[in-house]
Amino acid sequence: MRKQRIYDPFYKNMICSIFLAFSDLLGFVISLYLSLGILSFSMTNFSERVPDDQVASWIILHWLLGLCCVAWYGIRLRHYFYRKTFWFELKEILRTLIIFAVIEMAVMAFAKWYFSRYVWLLTWVLVIILVPLLRIATKIILNKLGLWLRETWIIGSGKMQGKHIKRYTARRIWGWVL
């Protein structure tokens, strides 16, 4: 049986997908702990406004939503397997995060959990900032390691080939090697 190397295209793509999914989950989940930490220092009567008995349930809900969000990005939107333009991918990320924020707010309302709205708002502002930033940082790191780059061919000649070569080489974050 042939021994597989890390630089085979399949394994490079799998490693990139795993790291991108992990960075999205990290950005989603760490925002919860950051907001609780920030507000515990800045908010007066934090323990009254954010009861400890309800925080545990909210943490579980947020983790589950984070896993569902990463699964949605991977399965439905195919962010981890296909290369998309920055703005198109950012639009899909932000739209999905807003939908998940509304879902979390609805679950919290139906469960009648008492929370300060500042905690929820700061958490989701941090999610909306951290998920795209960590994804970009992950792509940059993978690119520096040589894992993000994919080989591609441009078939054609003349002006159109020149335009495509300029387009694909100008955007290093897409990860195409011609």
From TrEMBL:
Residue stretches spanning the membrane: 21-43, 55-75, 96-115, 121-142
Keyword vocabulary terms for this entry: Membrane, Transmembrane, Transmembrane helix
Highest taxon above the source species: Bacteria
Protein name: UDP-phosphate galactose phosphotransferase
Organism: Escherichia coli
